[in-house]
Structures are given as C-alpha cells and as structure tokens.
Protein 1
Amino acid sequence: MKLEDLNVILKVAEFRNITLAAESLDMSKATASAAVKRVERLLGAELFIRTTRHLRLSVVGERYIPTCEQALKMLNQAQQSIKDELDIIDGELRISVPSDLGRNRVLSWLDEFMQFHPKISVRVHISDSNIDFYREPVDIALRYGFPNDANLYGFKICNVPRLVCATQEYLNRNGSPKHPNDLKHHNCLLYQLRDIIYDTWEFMRGNEKVKVKLQSNRTSNDAELVRRWCTHGKGIAIKSSLDMSSDLLNEKIIRLLPEYKPTPTELWLICPSRQTITPAMRLLREHLKIKCDEVYAQLIEKKILDKSDLK
C-alpha cells in the first residue's frame, strides 16, 4: 500500500469530499478517486459510503481511519527524528505570499533561503486574499494583519508601519499635503479587498485621531498595482513600509505627513495548525525576520523611518 494513497484517504475523511481533498493535495479528482479505490480494493471493504450529494465513513472506515492516522503520524515522527539527528532540512514549501511584498521582496528572500538549504523546493502562490487552507494547495501563508481565525496558528514576523507616499513629480503638479484633511483635494490611490474599498484613511498624532474619506480615479484589488500607480506619479498612496522600501530607499517616492501615523499592521506567517509546522517552516520564519530587520535598519539609517515607528 502506497503512503500517498493513505494520505489521500485521510484527506477524503477530513473533508468528506473527494474534490476538496484532491484540491488540497494539488491533484486531480480522478487521481484521488483512484487512490481511494486502490486502498478499498486492497482492504476488501469500502471505507466511504457515497451518495450523489454526500460522502461519509462506513463502519469499516470509522475503525480504520483513526488507526491509519496514528500509524502515519508515528512514521512521520520517526522520519523527522532521523532528519533532525542528521540536520537534514528538505521537502517542499507551498507558500502563499502577498502580491506586492511577494514579487518585490519575498521572492529574492526565498532564493537566498534555498541557497542555504538546497534540498528545499518551493511552490509559490501569489494572492492578497485570505487563504482557505482546506481548498488551496498551500501549507503556509505570509499575510499582513493578525490572523483572526482561532483555528489557525501563526508566527509574528514583525510590526509594519504604513506610510503615505507619492512621487516628487506628483507633488510638483499638485502640491504637498500638510494635514491629512488636505488629502481630500488629492487623487488617492485606493486598495480593494473583496467588495470593500478602503477609501477612508485613519491617522494618529499623539492623542489626535483624524479620519479622512477620499475620492480616487484608481482602485485595485492588487497591492502591487497600487504601488505602480504611486511610483508612476498617478496619486498618493498609503502602503506598507515593506512594500515601498525599495522605492523609498532609491528616492523614487517620498514619505508624506510623517508626524501623522496611518493605522499600522503586522506581518504574520500562518499555517492550518501547530501539527503542520516543520523545521523548514521554523527556519523560514527566522530568515524572514532577519530580512525584515535588514530592511528596517536601512530605512532607519536613511531617516525614512524612526525606531519609534516600529513600536
């Protein structure tokens, strides 16, 4: 009996759906169905009761699946124990990264990580949307914002200040805002996630809180496109300081209103559960922390950020 077939059986039992199990394992439904049939043929019994709408465990399945889970868990632990003793870091990392940060920072960081650990392979999924680990062929996701799903497990990478940015070309044409309320008279580049357009920006200066409702001729659900518009002088954007770090360091764009702080965010590496964490994931977390620290050290050295921005 193939271990791959047993993994399919466990996923089908988890989802109660062959199609969802196949998507989770990044294989076709036909391949998953064939794996189920091979195991059932070898056992001489059906593990699942199938109808046109539902799939549930049979009596045999209810007895077999828990034993199968425990056996595979013990085997995986034994394999990992040997790898730990031999200091072997290998396997495939299926990671989802945000569009802007992923393309312009994380991809090069992953290249460096793979140079340190040549037995690691990666499969990268680019998306700004929340990841459904039960439907997407992804093991871990790098995302902005604290994970609000109690079923997920996460590693915080760093605090992320958000900045107001524009090119000097845009400011020469339209003037520089002195107060957040001045942004009402500018073209502000907006980000959309699902059906929500983030057209209200909030700022803090000490105890003063300012909320500004904005107008724009450009909105996108792709954070990288918002950055491109900004760097091409199409308007003013609020963006993650990590996303904009290269453009800020190269003086392609300018930070505006530094005394008014937009609502900050955080960068997290998240996975479906604690049980899915591997040594490679832990090493990647440390690598990402180091790379983010390096970026922030450069921004502070050039006085684009202050240490207080990172608190």
Note: The chain is about 40% helix and 25% strand.
Protein 2
Amino acid sequence: MRQRFRYLFLICVVFNFSCQEEKAAEALFDFSGIEQFIEIAGILEQGQEPSDIQWQKLFSTPGYQVLTEREFSREFFREHLRMVFMPAEREALELALEKEKDLPFHRRHVHHFKSAKNRMDEIVLQMEQLKEHAPEIMEVSRKEALNYLPQMEENGFVPVSFVIFSNDARGYTPVVIDILFSIELDDNLPLLLGHELHHYFRNQILAYDPDAILAEDKYLLWVLDQIQAEGIADQIDKRKLVTDVEGPLHFFANQWEQMVKNAPEFLVFLDEKLDQMQDTAEQRLFTGQQLRENLPMSGHPIGFYMANLILEEKGKGALTEEVGNPFAFFRKYQQVAKAHPGDAPVFSSGAMRVISDMEEKYTGQ
C-alpha cells in the first residue's frame, strides 16, 4: 500500500510540474517520457498489467519513440519494466542482475532500471532542477558542440528528451539523455550534452543522403560514419569525463585508454577487409557486417585515435571543415599516417580506393 501511495504522489508531482511548463520550444527540455515511465511503474508495482493504450502513451513520447525506431524494441522496455517493477518477477530479476554484473556499465540495463525504481524521488527532483537551469545548460552545451563544427546556421530550438534507458545518451532527433545518467554527470552534463548536440548538428550537414544508401553499403558506411562522428564529438567530453581523475566516468579510464591504444589493430583489420573485398553486393554487405560486429564501442576509441592524430598534425580546422564527410576524415588520416610512417597504420591503395569510390558514389565528389 505504501508503494501505491508513493507512486500516486510522484505522478501528482510530475503532473503539476508538467502543467507549469511552457511549450516544448520554450521549455527546451522534454520530460514526457519520464512522466509516462512513472505512471507505468506505478501500475506494475501493483502487480497489474498496463493497457495497450498506456504502453502506447509511453512509446509515443519523443524520446522513447526515437529509441524504439532506431535501436531498442518496444518489447525490450516492456520486459525490463515488468521484471523490475512487478513483485511476481522478483526471481527473474535476481537472475538477470547476476547475469549482467560483468557487462560494461552502459549495458547493465536491468541494474539501471532497478536503480530508477529506488531513486524515483531523485528523478523528480532532477526534472525540477533541469527545468530551472535549462537555458544556461543549453547555452554552454551549444558552445561546446559548435567548437568542433564549421561556421553554420543552426536553428534556435534543439529538441532534447530525458528518459530512462541506460547510463548513456544519443544524438538522435530529438537528442536523448538518460535522466539518471544526468544526475551522475552533475556539473559535467553540458559536456555530455555538447557531445550529443554535435551529432545533432552534424546530421544537418552530412555530405551524403542517408536515405539514398544502398542496402549492400549500409553497414560499411555506418562504420565509416560512426568512426568520424564519435571521434570528433569525443574531443568535446572524453578527456574531462573519463581521463580526468575528477571526471564522473574516471572508473572507465583504464578500459578507455586501452581501447584507444588498441585502435591501430582495428585499423589494420579494416584495411585488410576493404583491400580484399570483391566489388559485389554480397561481398560488400558481408564485409560491412563483419566490420560492424568487430567495431569496438561503436567506433568511439577508433575515431578518437584517428581524430587525435589529425588534430595534432593539421589542427582543429582539419576536423571541422568537412565534419559531415566521413570519407574526407579517412583521407586526412591517411595523409597524416603517411607523413609519419611507422607511427600509425597506413591504409593500402585498395582500401583507399573503396573509400574514394564510396565518396564519389554518395557525395558526387
């Protein structure tokens, strides 16, 4: 009974908070996903099943809608929320928590949803804090993002949705940030948001049309694009959040530094696969799938390694002038690697020909 009244109280707090907000374009931050999450959690806590309409309200909020369109299934959220919040699922919950314990922090989804269950009061307080400080957070975040972008016209309103899904964020449209993750970041939130805004702005100036990519090239282009996108955006936040001893993600520093150190190994693997790839649809698709499956941490450490070399040799302008062109990123890395033989892997002429042909194919350059 106590839990029931707790969730009813939280729903009332969130409802009153929501009613006081301005329109989305003026409020800057969207919390509708959190509101629906709390409502669903309260129903599950009573051992009841939310209706299809109630689940649909959750998945129709901007943050959860883009997550389920781009990355997660709706069933993923249904299963995890049921497991964590329904009393009858306690045994399954304990087994899932044990199974997850050795996974990277951003992949411990069951642990994350359980943490949300235990920290509902903090979540509501964080919403109020974020609402109050939204203008200054967005101002700093924009500056961080634009620092690694060319001169460009950017719209005044950037959609940002706070949800609960993982200790992570996404540079989709809208930009998605986990609210518990934002609590852990504390004053460093603008750096993480700046990273995600960089993705958002970069997507507005891509050198190619994502909708025009042929099926056989989608994985290969995804790998090239991720390496550039994350490598440049990581210049905004990784040194402060991860490698700085005071950073909120410093516990991950040893793993991160080792992955960056091992980046040349993947570049050699990438070179071999591209150089040996036959120019058939089947081979392009197969090679792209292989590369995607083996790409460490969605390209972050590989791109960071390459971007650092370009930055040191050619300066920030070399990173920002063609920030929407992943093919140009590899071309500039190749120039730096050739200038310092032995210090970094140099791509073969066959691999660079594949990249050049893709650039011409999808950008006309």
Note: Residues 17 and 262 are 47 Å apart (CA to CA).
Protein 3
Amino acid sequence: MESLKNRLQTLGISGREAEVYIALLHKEELTAPEIAKISTVSLSKVYEVLQNLVKKSMCNENYKDGLKVFSAIEPKIALENILSVYETDLKNKKLSAQGLEKSLTSIYENKEYKEHPLDFIEIISDIGQLKERFVSIELNTKKEILGFMKSPYAIHPDDNFDNQAKIQKTSIQKGIYECNNIQTQDEKNKLIKTIRACQNHGEEVRLIKELPMKLVISDETVTMFSLPVTSAFKSRLTALIINHPAFAINFKIIFEMYWDKGMTLEEYEEQDLFEEEPGKQIL
C-alpha cells in the first residue's frame, strides 16, 4: 500500500488522494463515511479529497438510495486522465513562455546602455552560454578565425561541422589540435578522422603535443579563451572574451608561434604513437 501511494505521488497525486483512490479500488462503491473508516483520512477531509479525485477524473460520484457514493475509475483510464491534464498544462505553459520570451527579450535588448571602461571584457562560466557565444563568434567571422583546440570541448569538433560550413568561404580557418591525451591507436584514428573532416570543411590544421589553453581569435578583433577553474566542489570552464584589436593581435602572434612548431596531419599520421616530437616543444 505504501509503495503504491509513493508511486502515485510521483504523478502529482497527494498522499491522501492516493490512499482514498486505492481504497476505492477494493470496492465497487463506497460512501464518504465508509472510506473514512477504512483509511487514515478523517471524515472532515474525505469529502475534500473525493472532490479532488472527481476533478482529476480518477473517481466517479453518484447517488444510490439517497446516498452519495463514490467509485474508482479504471486505473488505465485514470492514469491517462492524469497525464492528459499535465500535457495540456505543459502545452499552455510553453505557449505562455513563448509570449513571455518576446516581452522579456524586448526589454533586454532595449535596456539602457551605460558605457563602462571595461565593456570590452566579458566573462562567461555557464556552459550553455559559453557554447552559444562561441557559435556566435564563429558565425560572425568575416576574414579569419584561429583556434587552439584543447579538450574538454564545449562543442566537440564533430558537432561543429554545420557551423563551419556557414562561415564565409572567403575567410581563413586555422586550428591547432592538442594530441597529448591520445593513449591508444584507436583514439589516434578517431582524432585523425575528426581532423580530416575539419579539413574537408575548409579548415587548415596543425597538431601539437600540448596547448596552454583553449583559444579562438576572430578577425584580429575578438579573442575568446578559457581556463579550467577548480573549486573545492567541482571543476568548470570559465571563458573570457576580449573585444579589442590590440589584444587579439598579440594573441595571434602566440598562435603563429605554435602553428610554426605544429605537425601537419600527414606528419602526425606517420608518427609512432609513443614517439617524442623532436623540435616540436615550444614555450
């Protein structure tokens, strides 16, 4: 009995409602006083509980010999009725959220702008917002996008091909991929397959044993980089976005240093998995 009550409660049925409904299942019909006698629900509360079950289409209410009697609706139908109510409620909430989103977005987009000396710096720690911001930078690139590709990825390269395809065909795409975490030949083959697919989508690539950070530079203006932040409870990524040409150009110099020291995909394919990279270590 207690287990059934708990399972009904997961569907949004109160404990009292669950107990009364289960009591009704045992008899063809019962009066409110009879239910109060065979359950822990007091007579003063039974009437309220029964009316709730009637509203939820889990219970029928009729008159017999001048007495009001109640009977349980077949469980299959009763459960379908409960889910139907929730589905309708969810649909209404989605429609309400859509209208609310437009109103709130309008306020957000027209908020009063107050210039601040550090407005060109943006800090993001939410993974969903980080992904969205990265895609925005990527799709708004006009001339050149450079990147240090280092796991863990906010968006894995395999999941980013559609966005790569949308970047202007005239723009330069260059990515340097870290490969020091590759431990098996199978992992190496998977990395090669991913990078070759990136090349097929117009990206020039290099590989290097270790990168200092995750980095994106767009049009020598926007720089996005992230570093792992470890607290006592969990590790997470925090990204900084600097919208400033001077900063971007300096980071581009660092990118080009790593690019010059990196291996081509062909060189990486030929290299033994456990072979050291002579002349590839920098900084």
Note: Confidence is low (pLDDT under 50) at residues 278-283.
Protein 4
Amino acid sequence: MARADAGNGGRRKSVPIWPTLKPPVPRAAMPRHVAIIMDGNGRWARQRGLVRIRGHEAGVEAVRDVVRYCGQTHVQALTLYAFSTENWQRPRKEVQYLMRLLKRYLVEELDELHANKVRLTSIGGVHRLPGDVLSCLEKAQTHTAGNSGLTLCLALSYGSHEELLDAARDLSAQAARGDLAPERIDAAAVEAALHSAGIPPVDLLIRTAGERRVSNFLLWQACDAFFHVTDTCWPNFRRADVAEAIHALAAAPSDVEPR
C-alpha cells in the first residue's frame, strides 16, 4: 500500500492509503450495505487456553482487515455489531476492557480512516458509554463527517428493539405536535426515525462462529438481507471470508425487487 502523512496532535505519522481492488463479483451484484455480527472472540480464546479478553484483542485485526477490504472494493456501508445492550451484563472487568479497546481503536485508527475517506458513524445508546470513550467517538465522527467513501457504522450499546421503540416515540411526538399526520407514517417515515437514517438497507448480513440468530440486530434494516453464517470465529475472519459471503449473495436466488 502507498502511504501518506497524517497529523496526530502536532506530530506527523505515516498511514497506509488503500489501493482500489476489483470487487469479487460484478459491480451490479455487489452489496451496498454489509452488516456483521462479530461473534466467537471468547470461543477463539478458550480454544487456545487464553482469557476472553485476548479474543477481543485479536478481533481488532479482523476489524482492520474487513474495513480496509470494504473500502477498497467500494462497499457503500459497513455496520459492525461492536457492543450490544445485553453486553452491559457481562463481567465488569470485561466491559471495562472492551471500552478501553474501543477507545484505543478510535484513537489509533482515526488517521487511517480519514486518509482513506471513511465516514465513521454510530447507532445505539452511545450516551451510556464512558465519558472518555464517548468523547473519542464524537471526535472521530466529527473529523470524518465530510468524507465520501465507505460509511463505517459502529453499533454500540445497540439493540434493535430499543431502536424501534425510539423511532416509535419520535414519530408519536411528531404526531402529537401536529408535525406529522398519523396516516402519513409509512416505511419511509420509520426509516427516517431510525438511528441508521441515511444508510441504505442491509443487503448482506454475516454472522461468524456458526450461530444462526440475528440477536436483536438491525431487524428493520436487514429484513430483506441475505443471511450468511460462517463457522469461522471473528478473530480469524478476514477479507477472503467477506468475499466468500459476497459470492454466496450473488449466487442466491432473490424474489426481492432491485432497489
């Protein structure tokens, strides 16, 4: 990869510039929006006799490679299920470590994401994140807001039920104020009220580690998505696995009208 200098608090550092890659299938068959349930970090660590946090740590490299590949093949949007509302119930030390890992990613990857025109955004109850983590997230989102390449959406403290409830409350409030007639609440109005407003519907939903559940993830946005499950645990997941899922999507019969 070519490299370019990027500013970092007054210092300069070299960041890789991603070369464009030929997509794995014809451009017309490429998904616009890929969403991934990143599962299997704990299993990966357990299989190696390691503590769970080592699996989370190893998963960062998978994130890095998948983000780069989606950017290089001009996928429009990539949503990663990084932390669910249920994850708050995990042991306190594990949650604290996950928050530190998220903060480190946001700080260390920001220059590379920005240099490659990635727009970082998020969905979920991010107000629940620790203050320092939320500050890094907001800084990264503001810094990359004008970018026109891949939209990287992190689902953080996210649950689809909660998102749909938020949308229902928002639409109800608009109707109560007289800003929106109840009979005008249609699919477009709901989509505009979702956390993911402005991001296209999910075409390809991938889950790693063999589970066949959607786990309260993008229930509205992925209602027509092709669901691809792989036995590969997240820390071992790489761009070749993304390409395999895209090939499966392209080969699958579809009764959904093209958008």
Note: Residues 27-159+201-250 form a domain with the Undecaprenyl pyrophosphate synthetase fold (CATH 3.40.1180.10).
